[in-house]
Design a protein that fits this description.
single chain; 2 domains; 7 helices; elongated
């Protein structure tokens, strides 16, 4: 992630399996809430435990809003929801590029053999 010259470049070390362990950002919050304790976390966030539980379950009319997400992160210091969103939506583009380059190199090594198998001869040096 890059910023303007007056800002600092940010590097994140993401857990590779984060998007495999959780299906949604709400699930990351629920895991943190229940690990920390529903009553304790709800009390810190000034939300009734039953309401928080319903918000996290996705049932009913009570939805977890962005302000509550921000309050959860501030109060608990749990940045897992942020890391999940970055991993899911930004991904590790350098890893994808490296994997693609490896595949291209492998294909280039196989190319002469593949061409020969279909009867295409490569040009000889100096021949026209």
């Amino acid at each position: 992630m890059s910023f303007s010259d007056s800002q600092v470049q940010m590097t994140l070390d993401l857990d590779a399996g984060l998007t495999d362990r959780f299906r949604s950002v709400k699930e990351t919050i629920a895991a943190g809430v229940y690990r920390r304790g529903l009553k304790r976390t709800a009390g810190d966030m000034d939300v009734a435990p039953g309401n928080l539980s319903i918000m996290l379950s996705g049932d009913g009319q009570r939805h977890l809003d962005v302000d509550l997400l921000e309050r959860y992160i501030e109060l608990t210091g749990d940045k897992t929801p942020i890391y999940y969103l970055v991993a899911k939506h930004c991904g590790d583009q350098s890893a994808a590029r490296d994997e693609a380059l490896e595949r291209v190199q492998g294909l280039l090594q196989e190319l002469p053999q593949l061409l020969a198998s279909v009867g295409v001869q490569g040009k000889r040096r100096g021949a026209r």
